[in-house]
Amino acid sequence: PAGGDNSRPDRGLLTRLGICASAAMNVMIVSACFYFGLSRADEPLYTILGYLGLVFAGITTVVGGDLFFRSVLRGARRGLVHLDLPIALGIALAFASSVVMHMTRGPEFAYYDTTSAFVTFMVAGRWLQQRAVERNRRALLRSTGVDHLYARRRAGDRVTSVPVRAIRAGDELWVVPGEFVPVRALPLDARRAYKLDWITGEPRVFTTRQDVALPAGATNAGEEMLRVRAIEDFTQSKLLTLLSGSDPTGNPADDRDTDTAGGEERWWRNVSLAYVAFVLLTACAGLLLWRHDWERAIPITISLLVITCPCAIGFALPLARELAHNGLRRAGVFVRKPHFLDRALRIRRVIFDKTGTLTNGTMRLAPESRRDLFALAVDDRRVLAGMAARSNHPVSRALWHELDREATADPGWIVREVAGRGLELVVNRALYRLGNAAFANHGARTEAGGETVFSRDGIPLLRIRLEEQIREDARDEVGLLQRMGLDIAILTGDSARAARRVAQAVG
Prior knowledge:
Elements: H1 11-35, H2 45-77, H3 85-104, H4 112-142, E1 150-155, E2 158-163, E3 172-175, E4 185-187, E5 193-195, H5 197-200, E6 205-207, E7 219-220, E8 226-230, H6 239-244, H7 263-289, H8 294-308, H9 311-330, H10 340-344, E9 349-353, H11 354-358, E10 359-365, H12 367-373, H13 378-388, H14 394-403, E11 416-418, E12 422-427, E13 430-435, H15 437-440, E14 452-456, E15 459-464, E16 466-470, H16 474-483, E17 487-491, H17 496-506
Parallel strand pairs: 9-17
Antiparallel strand pairs: 1-2, 1-3, 3-8, 4-8, 5-6, 5-7, 10-16, 11-12, 12-13, 13-14, 14-15
Helix pairs in contact: 1-2, 1-4, 2-3, 2-4, 3-4, 3-8, 4-9, 7-8, 13-14
């Protein structure tokens, strides 16, 4: 389905883990034979199983250890001491010394099983960490945002608002100025202006022809409503690809985390340097203390590297991140970047987008405006409903929400949208206008943040005031952040008065 993620960035790591686990289990079986008494007296099985253990341990070391060897090399190229250095040294020395012990004293003295199990668990930890982040990314990609998109569909003599997912081939859609065509469609109105800038980025204006289909994503660039007939279901619309953040092949766009050079990286760099230095000094001390007995010095050095290496951190930290990401996901928070949890500790200010975050994103009529609306004459209210149905302005959407049942589907009504001022429509030689006071009242002065006016021949019939609906939990969430000592701000393109009202409402 569109919006899904067919790409599996963790598949290579999962394959690596599967190979390591399979090889490690084979090593365990071979090692069990030696633990239960297999000796040189059992030749040739003794030699065959010994070399099988060597081969399987070598596979684990090469396939799984390569992950840590590469990390160390990348860190070295950048002049960094990576936390994987003790792990890489432990893996390399453990395997090398096991081979030496195998060749000099026999396979029963090698610890292929320990090396293989250690490598497998380390790879499993890395896979857990990447799996958590990729799961969140896929969840975001599946959410294309179309659930909140609606279109105007004509059904008989009425125009209704329907989710774009409900659009089917053959539906007649009404596209208001500034709105886009959600599916590939044939225009029913000729010589109407449209643009493809949402698709191509070019601002060029085209003119509709009734025999030339409009692509999904074409925008009505004129002043009048555009009628189109869908020639595909929305499930086939290329708009899904545009909204999903995918490339044309359906794979998600590259979203590499380029924000890793902050405090989190510096903190881990210091921890890595101190810890790795401690581990290496401890291992060197063990080697020097037993320098007169190399057969004991090498195992002791390897043991110090393995025991003191951050294997618990390497496995527990990804697991802890997985649990934290799962908890956030259940709360509706999807973490896209692996370093978010570390950077979150440095947050000092939270900036909220007003519309759609602190508010529910929809405007509704104030109680007094709603009362006056339904006190209008039926004919005037019918005209107002028809005008609102042909516009995508927030005021029009709020009116249409109230008057949906009264919206007419008369295609003979030509509603003209005057940019920055409002709508006008001539019905039975009467000029109706919906917009700011200067426009609707034919020259009346407009106050900043003034009301919207619906008029007939310059006579005001209705003054409209809208209210934003504050989310129920917004005040509690803002209060919690303030108690945590964080500064709170609001970012909005709305008027200062509207921003202050929301700020006061949420505390």
